[in-house]
UniProtKB/TrEMBL annotation:
<dbReference type="Pfam" id="PF00155">
    <property type="entry name" value="Aminotran_1_2"/>
</dbReference>
<comment type="similarity">
    <text>Belongs to the class-I pyridoxal-phosphate-dependent aminotransferase family.</text>
</comment>
<keyword id="KW-0808">Transferase</keyword>
<dbReference type="InterPro" id="IPR015422">
    <property type="entry name" value="PyrdxlP-dep_Trfase_small"/>
</dbReference>
<dbReference type="InterPro" id="IPR050881">
    <property type="entry name" value="LL-DAP_aminotransferase"/>
</dbReference>
<dbReference type="InterPro" id="IPR004839">
    <property type="entry name" value="Aminotransferase_I/II_large"/>
</dbReference>
<dbReference type="InterPro" id="IPR004838">
    <property type="entry name" value="NHTrfase_class1_PyrdxlP-BS"/>
</dbReference>
<protein>
    <recommendedName>
        <fullName>Aminotransferase</fullName>
        <ecNumber>2.6.1.-</ecNumber>
    </recommendedName>
</protein>
<feature type="domain" description="Aminotransferase class I/classII large">
    <location>
        <begin position="32"/>
        <end position="381"/>
    </location>
</feature>
<dbReference type="GO" id="GO:0008483">
    <property type="term" value="F:transaminase activity"/>
</dbReference>
<dbReference type="InterPro" id="IPR015421">
    <property type="entry name" value="PyrdxlP-dep_Trfase_major"/>
</dbReference>
<keyword id="KW-0032">Aminotransferase</keyword>
<dbReference type="InterPro" id="IPR015424">
    <property type="entry name" value="PyrdxlP-dep_Trfase"/>
</dbReference>
Length: 381
């Protein structure tokens, strides 16, 4: 018998990977499934983006290996995007590294900075991949609580009471997934000060800044943040390019170089045509964000109505691609609640428990469903 590596004992299959098989099986049986569980934008990229990819196919350099760092024009576009939208100055040659999606960056950063036995501060609730990657590299997850009573922000008094001597890295993500909490520059400044005090690498996962958010922010806006921080970003949600797998990590040259040393041993560069499309997307002005948000606003209104129809209390302050809602009193299990809805009403909603123990009692709706489908979901109740 060929045995698997011990590290596989530390992780399970990603929830959505297994659950969507069940959802697809129901759909194959003819059930009228409405999938409100996963944040995969159903809208298309701008036509100019698609045209740029089409044109790139004719370039003589389009089909060969590409630079591990991306073509210079892509890095320049990413730097311009940060300057135009966050007023953050980045050197495109040394302080930005294009990624095949920001999820890839979570693994690269972890491999670049974590040794076995190092500890990692992970938000609860938060993106499950932080935990799985921490386990895969042999580090130890240490969870810090986020609670609605504190607007889903860290409790710094509680953090200071922890033994931080082995903590090497801290994951944050604002706007927050799954709750949609906005965060603030004041919060970012506190986090940077905390990271400096304890010599911790702070990483902000920032793919939702422009969705239903009138005040996009970057951790790198905080003075001195580059000394202790990296920021991940993505074109997946902002530009409806989830399947294209285009992201970036930004920070000081030393930190970026460390990530590149891992990445350059794991792929052979991003496809040229996708890079050209990404360049075009990053040129988008405020009218693009406004047009997308007009659609998401209407969807959010209807989705909140659906949540309230279920007796849930919506977290109204949330931004981003999801609606976070507290279950009615007396419901003991979010997973049983959503399974009942899936099999009786054929609507798939994500249970809050997949994001951590503090997600128990909550469910999450994705705004990746057309208005008429959300209205249909409401009518099923």
């Amino acid at each position: 018998m060929i045995t698997t590596a011990n590290r596989l004992n530390t992780v399970e299959e990603y929830y959505f990977s297994s659950k969507l098989r069940e959802v697809r099986q129901l759909a194959s049986e003819g059930k009228p499934i409405i999938n409100m569980g996963i944040g995969s934008p159903d809208l298309a990229p701008a036509q100019a983006v698609i045209d740029a990819v089409t044109l790139a196919m004719q370039d003589v350099n389009a089909h060969g290996y590409q630079s591990y760092q991306g073509i210079p024009e892509l890095r320049k576009s990413m730097a311009d995007f940060y300057q135009n939208n966050f007023q953050v100055d980045l050197n495109p040659n040394t302080e930005i590294l294009p990624l095949m999606g920001s999820k890839e960056g979570i693994m690269h950063i972890s491999m670049a900075f974590l040794n076995e036995g190092d500890q990692v501060l992970i938000p609860n609730p938060g993106y499950p991949t932080y935990t799985s990657v921490t386990n895969l590299v042999g580090a130890e997850a240490v969870y810090y609580d986020l609670a609605e009573a504190n607007n889903w922000e860290p409790d710094f008094k509680a953090l200071e009471k922890l033994d931080l001597s082995k903590v090497k890295l801290m994951w944050i993500g604002y706007p927050h997934m799954p709750t949609g909490a906005r965060g603030s520059l004041e919060l970012f400044a506190k986090l940077v000060a905390f990271a400096k005090k304890h010599n911790i690498l702070l990483v902000n996962d920032n793919p939702y800044s422009f969705v239903l958010n009138d005040n996009p922010m970057s951790l790198l806006q905080v003075e001195g943040a580059k000394e202790v921080a990296l920021e991940l970003n993505s074109l997946s949600k902002t530009f409806n390019m989830a399947g294209w797998r285009v992201g970036m990590v930004s920070g000081s040259a030393d930190l970026i170089d460390a990530v590149l040393r891992v990445k350059s041993n794991m792929d052979s560069g991003m496809f040229y045509g996708i890079q050209k499309g990404a360049i075009e997307a990053l040129k988008s002005d405020k009218s693009w964000f406004d047009s997308m948000n007009e659609i998401y606003k209407k969807r959010r209104v209807l989705t909140e109505q659906l949540a309230e129809k279920l007796g849930c209390k919506v977290y109204k302050e949330g931004v981003g691609l999801f609606v976070w809602a507290k279950l009615p009193e007396g419901i003991e299990s979010a997973e049983k609640f959503i399974d009942q809805i899936l099999h009786e009403k054929y609507i798939f909603i994500a249970p809050g428990t997949i994001f951590g123990s503090n997600g128990e009692g909550y469910i999450r709706f994705a705004l990746c469903v057309k208005e008429e489908k959300v209205q249909e979901a409401i009518s099923r109740f």
